[in-house]
Amino acid sequence: MNSIDFIQLSKTVSHALRHEPQSYNLNLDKQGWVLLSDLVIALNSKGIQVDKNDICKMVELSEKRRHQILDDKIRAYYGHSIGNKILKQQAKPPRFLYHGTTKSRLNNILKIGLLPMDRQYVHLSVDENTAAMVGRRKKGELVVLKVSAKEAYLNNIQFYKEENGIWLSDPIPSEYIITNGINRNKRSF
């Protein structure tokens, strides 16, 4: 019986489903799904000997919950950088959401807003702690931004609810970013 590093397997599956499905000869549908059997074949062809049960166990053991299995298909919830935009179901966000970043990026964000950068959507968190955890992945002094999500939503910015307190959105103009208790429109919250 071979020993599987489920953390490394999760990273590889994320790479295949988020960033380079073509390198694994995978074709994602419009919601990012691929047959579980196709993923197994793709991984085996890359020398990663796994079966469907191994992939299911990887998803079950993952603390970060980045993947979903349903009806013998698998997808990455978020984080896609592929050319074809993954379609998401729009949802009404809570009043505030949070975004972790670094102090060196703050002035630019306050000028142009939050952009998806090399991803398809802006990543937001339902609480400050999760945003801080995400923001710490970047080098530099941590800054957690508060976003007036409900107001942005009411002004036609689209939001999409994912798992584990993660929200995605289309670009968020700086006027919805609250600093020192005041949003960029100078209205207090």
What structural keywords apply?
Arc Repressor Mutant, subunit A; three-stranded antiparallel sheet; 2 domains; four-stranded antiparallel sheet; ADP-ribosylation fold; 6 helices
Query: How large, in whole angstroms, is the Cα Rg?
Result: 18 Å
Q: What would the average pLDDT be, to the nearest integer?
A: 90
CATH class of the largest domain: Alpha Beta
- Corresponding CATH architecture of the largest domain: Alpha-Beta Barrel
In the sheet with the most strands, the strands line up as 4-6-9-10
Helix content: 25-40%
Poorly predicted tracts of residues: none
H/I helix tally: 6
How much β-strand is present in the residues?
15-25%
GO molecular function: NAD+ poly-ADP-ribosyltransferase activity; tRNA 2'-phosphotransferase activity
EC number: 2.7.1.-
Family: Belongs to the KptA/TPT1 family.
GO biological process, one term: tRNA splicing, via endonucleolytic cleavage and ligation
Structure write-up:
- The protein is an alpha+beta fold.
- It folds into two domains: about 5-75, Orthogonal Bundle (Arc Repressor Mutant, subunit A), CATH 1.10.10.970; about 95-180, ADP-ribosylation fold (Alpha-Beta Barrel), CATH 3.20.170.
- It contains six helices and ten strands, in the order αβααβββαβαβαββββ.
- The chain has a four-stranded antiparallel β-sheet with strand order 4-6-9-10. A three-stranded antiparallel β-sheet has the order 1-3-2.
- β9 and β10 (about 180-185) form a beta hairpin.
- It starts with 5 loop residues before the first helix and ends in a 6-residue tail after the last strand.
- The model has no long low-confidence stretch (mean pLDDT about 90).
- Removes the 2'-phosphate from RNA via an intermediate in which the phosphate is ADP-ribosylated by NAD followed by a presumed transesterification to release the RNA and generate ADP-ribose 1''-2''-cyclic phosphate (APPR>P). May function as an ADP-ribosylase.
